[in-house]
Design a protein that fits this description.
It is a single chain. The protein is an alpha/beta fold and 318 residues long. It is 42% helix and 23% strand. The chain contains 12 helices and 13 strands. The chain has helices at 2-16, 32-53, 68-80, 95-105, 129-140, 166-173, 179-185, 199-205, 207-211, 250-255, 267-282, 306-316, and strands spanning 21-28, 57-64, 85-89, 110-114, 123-127, 148-154, 159-161, 190-196, 216-220, 238-244, 261-264, 292-296, 299-301. The strands form 2 sheets. Strands 7-8-6-9-10-11-13 form a 7-stranded mixed beta sheet, with helices on both faces. Strands 2-1-3-4-5-12 form a 6-stranded parallel beta sheet, with helices on both faces. Strand 3 (85-89), helix 4 and strand 4 form a beta-alpha-beta unit. Helix 2 packs across helix 11 and helix 3 (68-80) packs parallel to helix 4. The longest helix has 22 residues, at 32-53. It starts with a helix and ends with a helix.
């Protein structure tokens, strides 16, 4: 990633060396590990650009509670406090937040929206959903034709839901993968879907039903389902486990072969590209600014390359 940044450091530095900038980073404080990775990507890129340009670019972390009102309030405060721009990890899709981002943009205060919760920023950075869906489809294809696939989503109460209901499925999947891409990835497969808080609680409560399963696979659509770090009971009838999304906790499950694959976001890369693009757009006259989109490929991790996963997270959280 550093080599990619170095290519444009000099050019941006020259355009930006006449004044210092302060950029706000606004993210849900409850998601501190993912946000720390994004923030460090932005902060380290700012340091490289500052060194090249001779003037300071500072990224300041403004953690917020997990709701749109607080993010809107913090964004307005950043503008009033003299920040030049903001990088926003939106906690949810919000018309009010999008309206605030657009309102401030008209006053020259630019925003980068990362992750997919909002696309209102002049700069938008996230994961390539098509490549993520393709990676999921490729792994699912390894399952035997008779295997049933059980999908798990994060929720406060355990319940089974109708996975053929596109409107409900869309709400569960979020921005990473759409219902149509999901259906394509699992085309021709027998599927069941559940919501639960932790997989370990679900497995304990449904141990008899799980014991009766033959030739099955499991797919977790949120790494928080494993965040209690409880071991996953081995089962000779289980063909594989995939997790879509990742946090540092997944190192334990990968290295002990409890899960077979993580398909995750390049959080650090989000920070790198959002900061770099913001700096570049701020260096232009308002009439020359243009919408910037960047979709990064997902990071695919198995036990064989889990050392790289561990190394990345160690660096991302410094």
């Amino acid at each position: 990633m550093k080599s990619t940044v170095a290519i444009v450091v000099f050019a941006i530095g020259l355009a930006f060396d006449c004044f210092a900038q302060k950029i706000a980073f606004i993210g849900d404080r409850a998601l501190w590990q993912a946000n720390s990775a994004i923030f460090n990507g932005a902060k380290n890129t700012a340091a490289e650009l500052s060194k090249a340009g001779g003037k300071g670019i500072e990224v300041v972390y403004l953690p917020t509670p997990a709701n749109e009102a607080e993010q809107i309030r913090e964004l307005g405060r950043a503008y009033l406090d003299g920040f030049s721009a903001a990088i926003i990890v939106a906690v949810e899709k919000s018309e009010l937040l999008d309206a605030k981002i657009s309102e401030l943009a008209r006053s020259g205060f630019l925003s980068a929206t990362v992750g997919g919760g909002s696309r209102a920023g002049l700069v938008c950075v996230g994961t390539d959903s098509k490549k993520l869906a393709a990676a999921l489809k490729e792994f699912v294809a390894k399952a035997s034709q008779k295997a049933e696939i059980f999908c798990y989503f994060s929720g406060e109460k355990e319940r089974k839901f109708d996975i053929t209901d596109s409107s409900e499925l869309s709400g569960k999947l979020g921005w990473r993968i759409g219902p149509e891409a999901f259906k394509d990835a699992f085309s021709g497969r027998r599927l069941s879907a559940f919501e639960c808080r932790f997989y370990s609680e679900f497995a304990a409560k449904n141990s008899v039903e799980i014991l009766r399963r033959d030739n099955y696979c499991e797919v977790f659509f949120n790494p928080s389902l494993l965040s209690d770090l409880r071991p996953i009971k081995p089962d000779g009838d289980r063909e594989f486990i995939i997790c879509v999304g990742a946090l540092p906790i997944m190192e334990y499950y990968l290295q002990t072969s409890q899960i077979d694959c993580c398909i995750s976001d390049d959080f650090y890369g989000w920070g790198v590209y959002s900061l770099r693009a913001l700096v570049e757009e701020l260096s232009k006259p308002a009439s020359k600014r243009a919408k910037f989109y960047k979709s990064l490929p997902p990071i695919i991790t198995t036990k064989e390359n889990s050392a790289g996963f561990s190394r990345d997270w160690k660096n991302w959280l410094k």
